[in-house]
Amino acid sequence: xxxxxxxxxxxxxxxxxxxxxxxxxxxxxxxxxxxxxxxxxxxxxxxxxxxxxxxxxxxxxxxxxxxxxxxxxxxxxxxxxxxxxxxxxxxxxxxxxxxxxxxxxxxxxxxxxxxxxxxxxxxxxxxxxxxxxxxxxxxxxxxxxxxxxxxxxxxxxxxxxxxxxxxxxxxxxxxxxxxxxxxxxxxxxxxx
Length: 192
Description:
This protein has ten helices and no strands. It is mostly helical. It starts with a helix and ends in a 6-residue tail after the last helix.
């Protein structure tokens, strides 16, 4: 009887383990894909070109309290549920769920950037970058949850400019008052 890798692969739980690992990798790939999608939505679709996204995004620049992309939630939920209903937990579903997880994470990070005082160095860096985008670099810094694609596509300010950005935004307090959170849950109700 062999005790090498083939014996492990033949064990009853091995297929399940490989399947779970594969699905975890697909989910992580979806999270990574979200960062590119976030960059494309925020950069080219919201700032560079006149698209259907631009007027929705302009609302947030005029009023940072409108922090949630509320109009996307219900359609995204419907698509996710339909995908699961019709495809089950097919491996591609896990990739899509990673993209959705990235979007949910983005919403949470974006809210914290505007409404909560940073608790750690990562939150501080993300807040400085995003508030600099709002105040002094509207045609740059499109990644909210990651600077990766700004670096790849040349929209990340030079390292020497980071101190200037920090000075420009460091005294901006966290927002107070309501966000558009409630609207996210009531906008689809009849009579609204």
